[in-house]
Amino acid sequence: MNYSIPPWPHAPGPDPREIKHQFLIRNDVIFLNHGSFGACPRVVFETYQSWQRELEEQPVEFLGRRFLGLMSEARAKLAEFVGSDPDGLIFVPNATYGMNVVARSLAHTLPLGFGDEILTTDHEYGAIDRVWRFIAQHVGARLRRVTLPSTLSTPEELAETILAEWNPRTRIFSLSWVTSPTALVMPIKMLVEEARRRGVVTVIDAAHAPGLLDESEFRLEALGADFVVGNCHKWMLAPKGAGFLYAAPRGRETLEPFVVSWGYQADPPGRSRFLDQHGYTGTTDPAAYLSVPTAIEFLRNPDWVLIRERCRTRAAMVRRRVAEIVGSEPERFCPDSSQWFRQMVACPLPSCDALGLQKALWERHRVEVPCTRLGGSIDAVHADDPRRWLRVSVQGYTTDHDLETLLGALREEWPRYART
Ligand SMILES: Cc1ncc(COP(=O)(O)O)c(C=O)c1O
Q1: What positions does the domain Aminotransferase class V occupy (predicted)?
Q2: What CATH code is carried by the domain that includes residue 338?
Q3: Which of 79, 184, 233, 253 has the fewest CB atoms within 10 Å around its CB?
Q4: Is 2 contained in some domain?
Q5: How many domains does the structure of the chain reveal?
Q6: Dist. CA 215–CA 209, nearest whole Å
Q7: For a substitution probing ligand 1, which of 96, 123, 174, 203 has the most ligand atoms within 8 Å of its CB?
Q8: Does ligand 1 have an atom closer than 6 angstroms to the CB of 298?
Q9: Nearest CA to 194 among 221, 166, 220?
Q10: 61 pLDDT higher than 80
Q11: Residues 341 and 400 in one domain
Q12: In angstroms, what is the span from residue 208 Cα to ligand 1's centroid?
């Protein structure tokens, strides 16, 4: 190997090979895409399955008598983890669902009208962009996406670029806390503060943020946004199907139930109409939600701080090594700083057949890693933007051998897929 960058430095904390045993990820897969759907530790998955078993053993006892109490306990644990008042937080199956609840409600209750503007950016997740497209088309509002600079320097400068696009018709501002195609941590606090000053409703997509950001940074009430949707099944390591929706006190009454059930005009009413209306949506399997406290316990293992730091350092090194192989200049995209990215990093790729490359990495090398573009894989909105990234997630179970395998595979495949 002739990399000019030195080998991976020793890092304190448990050996990733041992951590890998604690997960269910297959040994024959080099799994570098934690970002898309997460991965769940064994202990959390076993908790999940034991809740499912308990439900099936006595469904009436479980769903008829215990459901609300169990959900309330799990919600309280999650609320503490994300810095929320437990009465302002509901479980939803995923961030997309939560965003639908918010967007569809705001269209009626804000209300959003003809000529009003929904402002977002061109780095949002494709499905969420579609939610806003759908709403805009239905009410005659305008969806405008700020084009983020192709070179990022400071979070303050980026916040100013975004703010310069606001105008008096901007009613809703929707932004990812951590972007999907580019893995960037957005200057969310500054933008939310300014939105509050201007009376613009803020809807934050935190699909990636909890568990990827430090617990001390991810405090929902302190953030002051109107609505935040997020996932527990990505970086919080919960089983699939566990997301949340946070609403600030001023926003709770404006949310309409997406599914009308017993909680609408609840008889007798509980202490919170918000919880009544959104807390029970019909017969369901709540095992993923009820496993969230176990995932939180897993994350709070003191070693996890060391593990995340090791992952973040490795992610930065991977970015440099990928740049050497493909001949890109990642610093021209964003500085090598934890202000901009953590253990998930987007490595810029020069012009190439990115989908072909992703397919080859998987099919020929068993390396699971996405090549990303703005707006998702097939999207007319961003069809003209030629930029592509290799988005690498480094998780506690990622070994140095996994990263070397990626780099070796990329070195082999790149000449086939690069466009000169
Ligand atoms: C930024 C962002 N928002 C929303 C989502 C949607 O998450 P889910 O499919 O769990 O709703 C994703 C998924 O990767 C994402 O990256």
Answers
A1: 60-406
A2: 3.90.1150.10
A3: 253
A4: no
A5: 2
A6: 10
A7: 96
A8: no
A9: 166
A10: yes
A11: yes
A12: 7
314 and 283 within one domain: no
Could you read off the pLDDT of 247-275 as tens digits, one per residue? 999 999 999 999 999 999 999 999 999 99
Residue 35 CA, closest ligand 1 atom number: 14
Q: Say yes or no: CB of residue 176 within 6 Å of ligand 1.
A: yes
Query: pLDDT tier at 3 (50, 70, 90 boundaries)?
Result: very low
Residue 9: inside a domain = no
Domain boundary among 249, 281, 298: 298
Report the alpha-carbon distance of residue 353 to residue 416 in Å, rounded. 9
Cβ of residue 128 lying under 6 Å from some atom of ligand 1: yes
Mutate to test the pocket of ligand 1, among 100, 128, 212 (most ligand atoms within 8 A of CB): 128
Does the residue 37 lie in any domain?
no
Q: Which of 298, 331, 347 is the last residue of a domain?
A: 298
The answer, yes or no, to whether any atom of ligand 1 lies below 6 A from the CB of 205, is yes
Pair of tokens at residue 283: 């017969």
pLDDT digits (tens, 9 = 90+) for 397-413: 999 999 999 999 999 99
Determine the distance separating the centroid of ligand 1 and the alpha carbon of 125, expressed in angstroms. 6
CATH number at residue 157: 3.40.640.10
CA of 96 to the centre of ligand 1 (A): 6
Task: State whether the beta carbon of 228 lies less than 6 angstroms from ligand 1.
Answer: no
